[in-house]
Automatic annotation (TrEMBL):
Pfam family, any one: Flavoprotein
Gene3D superfamilies assigned: Flavin prenyltransferase-like
Stored InterPro entries: Flavin_trans-like, Flavoprotein
Superkingdom, natural source: Bacteria
Occurrences of domain Flavoprotein (ranges): 5-178
Record's protein name: Flavoprotein
Amino acid sequence: MLRHKKILLGVCGSIAAYKAAMLVRLLVKAEAEVQVILTTSASAFITPVTLATLSKRPALTEFVRNDQSGQWNNHVELGLWADALVVAPASANTVAKFARGLCDNLLSATYLSARCPVFVAPAMDLDMYQHPAVQENFRLLKSYGNHIIEAGYGELASGLVGQGRMAEPEEIVQHLEQYFTSRAIV
């Protein structure tokens, strides 16, 4: 059901960013077109080269390309191109930016420009995940029509155990397939 779907994949700074590689592989295997946008901090956890290789497209990180050509990555065009925007992992910082309409990077500006459905798969430590401010931001995102793919329960990078693990890539793909299947039936 993802064949020929255009998927924007936002990757935020989180130890769970390593799962983005598998998510890209699964989406490409399902014959989706995948365009990756990384936040600056995501590049500390997974390289743009890895995601570009797997997606067969340059991984975007900035508005303006660093090649002195004057070319830029147009967030409006990206938002119009996509059939879905998936943010996985979504950090508490990015969730807050989305909830409050802040756009100081390519991913958040693209989010605000997107006309497609948005799927947010958070990843953060359990105390961050449970914090009232973060929970309020999730509530706001849902009220805007965004789909929150709940974080799983388990051992976290901090060594603590609780909710905050990013959903597995297979689960995220399943959410997308269910969404597009339900739209095809209507």
